[in-house]
Design brief:
The protein is mostly helical. It has one domain. Helix 2 runs antiparallel to helix 3. The chain is globular. The N and C termini lie far apart (33 Å). This is HEPN domain-containing protein. It comes from hydrocarbon metagenome. Pfam families: HEPN.
């Protein structure tokens, strides 16, 4: 079981946050660095949000390019997506 939707839910939520700040990212990894510099390092987001996104990104990349995936990882990505979405929604409201 691979859940790309959990990763992309996090990706687009974090992307919306970067856009709301007047910035644009050029790639998936650039988004990670933008979130770190603009929000985590500034104390606006907990580091756990970035850790969840990093895990989701690695899980998706492993499934796409390395054929490495597990049901547990997919469930973890979906669960972390809910946390990330709640945090970003609260910041954008």
């Amino acid at each position: 079981m691979v859940d790309h939707q959990g990763y992309y839910a996090q990706f687009h939520a974090l992307r919306a946050l970067v856009f709301a700040g007047g910035y644009r990212e050029k790639s998936h990894s650039c988004l990670r660095y933008a979130i770190e510099a603009l929000y985590v390092d500034e104390g606006l987001l907990p580091a756990s949000i970035l850790e969840d996104f990093n895990f989701a990104m690695r899980t998706r990349e492993g499934a796409d390019y390395g054929c490495v995936y597990s049901e547990k990882d997919a469930r973890d990505v979906v669960a972390s997506a809910g946390v990330v979405l709640d945090q970003i929604r609260a910041m954008l409201e």
